[in-house]
Amino acid sequence: MPEPRQGPADGKAHDPRLLPLPYAPPEKGRPKRWSKHYRTEIAASTSSILSTFTAYPLDSVKTRMQAYKFPTFVDCVRHTHQTEGLRGFWRGVLAPLASITFVRTVSFSIYQKAKYTYSAWLEKATGQSPLVIVNSPGSYPTFITAACFGAAGATAGAAITAIACPFELTKLSAQISVLMAGSNNVAMGGDDAVRHSYQQKGTLKTAQNIVQHRGVRGLYSGFHLHLLRDTIGTGIYFTTYESCKQVMATTSGSSPTSPVAVVVAGGICGLVSWACIYPIDSAKSIYQRNCLTHSASTKIDTPKIQFFNRRMYRGLGVSMGRSCLVNAIFFSSFEFIKKQINRLEDY
């Protein structure tokens, strides 16, 4: 005959193996389960703050070189330091810290869900699962894996454009506000009062200023170019990252999430995606600058996206270096945090 189970009356602590089911774990275990459920969001947001702040000066220089004619990277850095000091390199950093963190967190969440959805659809259509292929030892990227990751990335990029566009416009305004107000910008046209009104403004006041001059729709100036850039760029970005990890794992015999694979894949995906969509980004920066320097009554023509025009690649080296650094830091931190969360107990 089995012995009776011990309870609180025995003066002994509960043993979950001896208690009748269902057994409710202590409340202090709940946060761990929550963190495991939202590990993608936690890892993405934390990593985004770290990588964005670290590489922001390079992003600021890149935007200035796109919007204005600086002969070299060094000239742009020197001019920024002389006219604005060190703070100039981080001017407007609060908006992207908040927006990029939020946008990237949402983007990764959408990407993860879309990746599994498209994988299931492709498996039904072809009989092959992209996710099974990519996680099989000794496998290499195929058309079906690239299609899955590319479609999921493009979905995420398109979805977050509506959120990202106003934030990126205010960031651009903060980065080039001093240049817009400079006397050497008269040749570019625009309203002097409008151009000077953006100088020394915080994120919120910059947004209010845009609404004042161009209405609420002004916050979405350049939306069409932003949508094109992020849809194409994010698709290339995730395809390159996942494929590089797969190749690194197969050739080295290591895990796809090993530190070396993650750093290399993160750096390469940033380089490749920016190299492909940089003329679109340049056209967006020029168009948004023109919108900021003119009143709402002035019609702004969309610049042509010219892939074979050297002018559209001003600041490309800076941008690729920044992107390589940002993504190497981001993905290293992202995968590390996810691993640490996965090691936690369920309760």
Major β-sheet, in short?
none
Rounded mean pLDDT score? 83
Residues in helix, %: 55-70%
H/E element order: HHHHHHHHHHH
The total strand number stands at 0
Distance between the termini: 33 Å
Instruction: Count helical runs.
Output: 11
**Rg (C-alpha, Å):** 25 Å
Poorly predicted runs: 1-26
Strand content: under 5%
Structural class comes to mainly alpha
Shape: elongated
What does this structure look like?
The protein is mainly α. The protein is about 65% helix and about 0% strand. The protein contains 11 helices and no strands. It has helices at about 30-35, 40-65, 75-85, 95-125, 130-135, 145-180, 190-195, 205-215, 225-250, 260-290, 315-340. The longest helix is centred in the middle third of the chain and has 39 residues, at about 145-180. The chain is elongated, with a radius of gyration of 25 Å. Mean pLDDT is about 85; it is low at about 1-25.
